[in-house]
Amino acid sequence: MNEKVILQQIIDSCDDSLRDVFLRRMDIAVKMTRLDDDGESIYDYDREQEVLRHVTAGLSPELTIRANSLWRSLMRMTRGRQYRHVITNKPQLKLPHEKDLVDSDGITDGLVLCPSEMARTVAATLGMEVSPCHSIAATIDALLQDKGDYAALVVSSFYDTEWLYALIYQQPIYINSFIPLPDGQMLALFSKKLFSDSSNSIVSVAFAIRMDQQGDLAQTLSSLAEAKLNLEYFRVKTQDIDYDDQQKINIVFAEFSGSLTAIHTRTAFLQLERELPFFRVIGYRASY
Fold first, then answer.
1. Closest CA to 283 of 196, 175, 200
2. Residue 61 dihedral angles phi and psi, to the nearest 5°
3. Strand ranges inside 25-108, DSSP E
4. 104-152, pLDDT tens digit by residue?
5. Residue 238: what pLDDT?
6. How far are the Cα atoms of 44, 65, 154, 161, 191 from residue 211, in angstroms, in the given order?
7. Could you tell me the CA-to-CA distances from 186 to 9, 28, 181 in Å, in that order?
8. Cα separation of 63 and 199, whole Å?
9. DSSP assignment string, 159-225
10. In the prediction, which pLDDT does 100 show?
């Protein structure tokens, strides 16, 4: 038997051992969660930093980076299984956005707020009653004050939406639809409700990543990928330079194809809401 075959057999043995330890870790984590069925104590940032310091102690710089990434992923996946246990066994648990989620077969009739220069386009596109406002900011404010059922804004393209997301990501407002216009622009329709329409397949989210935490973005995207959400749109954008620098965060806007109500999606969102500096669902709409 040559040396390469022997080394491959050793690696196979290591894989078997890692698999057994992985399964044991996952099972024990669920048992721990049963002792804390609301899952509030699942994530302990300080303890996890201590674990990372322990497993990387004495390693070379190269292996330290890899071990850090491996154990962060392992701990993230373990917590994900714990959060799934909470979601599955606590049906009364509501995520923040779910209080605004309503069943609907589509956008219902109502009054649409919009800037006055967009009023004709909005009325012709939606066939709904329109209430003009003197600016984009006034349109948003009027919706927040319940002066209309919806608000509509025209954007030059789907890739020109950062400013729109920035307007609403901290407000109780959700994207409900993007409608292509004949001139190539798009009409964005949003409201204070999140419609659970059977045709909806795009979930929009905003979240913060820590600038001083190596691999934060990769770990977040991995959580979403494991929830069977496929990335459709992605932007990293600083909103408030002074505040973001002080907090050492950046804001990410992303859209994913997938189901908002699926258990794996709800599990991932519960995890991210409890672990990230900021996480919020900002829309649920049909693909186009």
1. 175
2. -55, -40
3. 101-103
4. 877 888 999 999 999 999 999 999 999 999 999 999 999 999 999 999 9
5. 65
6. 19, 17, 33, 23, 32
7. 58, 50, 5
8. 47
9. TS-HHHHHHHTTTT-EEEEEEE-TTS-EEEEEESSEEE-TTEEEEEEEEEEETTSTTHHHHHHHHHH
10. 95
By the 8 A CB rule, do 144 and 172 touch? Answer: yes
- Cβ atoms of 180 and 215 closer than 8 Å: no
Residue 259 one-letter amino acid:
S
Query: With bands split at pLDDT 50, 70 and 90, how would you rate the model's confidence at 217?
Result: very high
Number of other CB atoms surrounding residue 170 within 10 Å: 13
At a CB cut-off of 8 Å and minimum separation 6, what does 231 contact? 221, 224, 225, 254, 255, 256
Task: Give yes or no for residue 212 having a pLDDT over 90.
Answer: no
Is there a contact between 30 and 85 (Cβ–Cβ < 8 Å)?
yes
Which tens digits make up the pLDDT trace of 60-91? 999 999 999 999 999 999 999 999 999 999 98
What's the pTM?
0.91
Task: State the DSSP H helix or E strand holding residue 34, giving kind and residue range, or none if neither.
Answer: helix 3-34
Kindly state the DSSP code that residue 57 receives in the 8-state scheme.
T
Q: Quick one: tokens of 138?
A: 């006034």
Spatial distance between the Cα atoms of 153 and 99, rounded to a whole number of angstroms: 25
| pLDDT-above-70 percentage for the chain | 97
Mention every residue, 6+ apart, whose C-beta is less than 8 A from residue 243: none
pLDDT of the residue at 141: 97
Tell me the C-alpha distance between 43 and 226, whole Å. 18
For 164, list phi and psi in degrees, rounded to 5.
-70, -50
The two beta strands, 194-196 and 174-180, are: unpaired
CA dist., res. 136 & res. 139, Å (int)? 5
- Please choose, from the candidates 92, 86, 89, the residue with its C-alpha nearest in 3D space to the C-alpha of residue 29: 86
